# Entry
Amino acid sequence: MDFQHRAGGKTGSGGVASASESNRDRRERLRQLALETIDINKDPYFMKNHLGSYECKLCLTLHNNEGSYLAHTQGKKHQTNLARRAAKEAKEAPAQPAPAKVKVEVKKFVKIGRPGYKVTKQRDPETGQQSLLFQIDYPEIAEGIGPRHRFMSAYEQRIEPPDRRWQYLLLAAEPYETIAFKVPSREIDKAENRFWTHWNRETKQFFLQFHFKMEKAVPQSSGPPPPVGVKRPPPLMSGHRPNESMLPPPPGGMPPLPPGAPGTPHMPPQMAMPPMPMRPPPPEGLMSNN
# Structure
C-alpha cells in the first residue's frame, strides 16, 4: 500500500497500516474481483430500492453502490447465510425418488445351428481389385430381426493365436449361431459401389460384398528369370566385368577358344613320338648291277 500521503508520513518510510485500513483495502480488492467474475443481474438476493441504494434481501443490509454489495457477497456474513438457507431448503424439500432406469428386455433365443453360406472370390476387370461376395441363408430367422455384420481384429478373438495378417468378418442373426470368416488383414474399400449389403426378405438370403484396396506394386527386375538352379550374376559396377570363372556354363558345353586367348585352359605338354627306324642302305654289288 502507498502511505506517502498520510498525515506525518514520509516518502519511502511508510508506517504499519491500521486494522481499518487493511479491511478497507481487502474489501476493495474483493470488490474488483467480484466485478470481474460475478454477474450481479443474476443474483436472486440483489435489489435496488426507490432511494437508489442497493439491498441484500438475504442479509437485510443496505449498500450505496454495486461495488459495496459485491464486496458484501464475498464476506463471512453473506456466505454463512447462504449455507443456512441451503441447509433449510434441503431439510424442507420432500425426498424425491430416484428416476427409474429404463430396462431393456434382452431377447433370448434357442440356437438352432449355423446357417448355410457361399463365398465367391472375384476380381474387378477394370480396376483389378480383389473382392469377396458372401451369400448367407437364414430360412428360419426370427420375425422382425435382420442380419448384422462387423469386422473383428485378430486380437479380439480367443479361439486362435492372434496373427496380424488376418482379420475376421462376423455375421449374426437370431436364432442362428454367429459365424465368422477369416479374411486377409488388408484395408477395405468403403466406397459406395465397393462395399454393399442386401437382405432379401422373400428368399431369406443375406448378401455382402466388399473390395480390398489396391496395394502398391513392388517393382520387379527386368529380364527373363534365370533357369532353375542357376544364380544370376551381380550387376556391373563402375565398368568392371565379373569374374568369368564365376559365370555358369552355357547349355551344350563350352565352345572352343582360339589359341592365345585369355582364359584358355592350360594343357599339359604332350610327349614326343619316338623316331621311326631307318632302313640300312643296300649292298654296293646290288647297286653296280643296276
